[in-house]
Specification:
This protein has six helices and no strands. The chain is mainly alpha-helical and about 210 residues long.
Amino acid sequence: MTTIAVTVPVRRSSDRLLLAGALAGPVFFASAVTQMLTREGYDITRHPISQLATGRLGWIQITTFVLAGLGGLALAVGARRTLTDGIGRRAVPIFVGVFGAGLVAAGVFTMDPEYGFPAGTPEGPVGEMSWHSIVHSAAAAVAFTALAIAAIVLTVRHARRRALLPAVLNGVAALILLLPMSPSRMSIQIAVNGLVAFTWTTVLAISLRRVS
């Protein structure tokens, strides 16, 4: 009886953590898309999503980054509790946690206004990147690289278990996240990477909830 009494609250707690991880992506993109459509001067072909964190209303995207990052950290803890055996039981939670922490840092340290956004900003790139913009770029790069590594680990895990479709999907996600950035299409590529990353975390969270 004691074991059951202890296990049930832990399982419920893990479910809540995984639910937070599953919601991180939809919340992020609901906020980002709403801002893209309503903020004056924003153009997805010229401005990366991160640039929404600049200007008078930048706090909305900053909050969005932080909440999504906390969702990633919740997913990492939930994954640590759920993946108890096999390849990736230690690595996946660690790299997902790095992803979450990277998003929080990317929100706290904003990029520089440039290319006419926010409205009133001079056209063209910023002359010299600020220190917080450098930290933002580094945090985002580390976050997405860590998530790609987590996807690679799961590719190996599923391949060893002969689960072909999950192995292929994880491999494709990792490949997309690791593709070099094209300077001429960077803002679009960043948006695609974000969509792939958050789709991956949502699917992982849902699948782990089923296991738990």
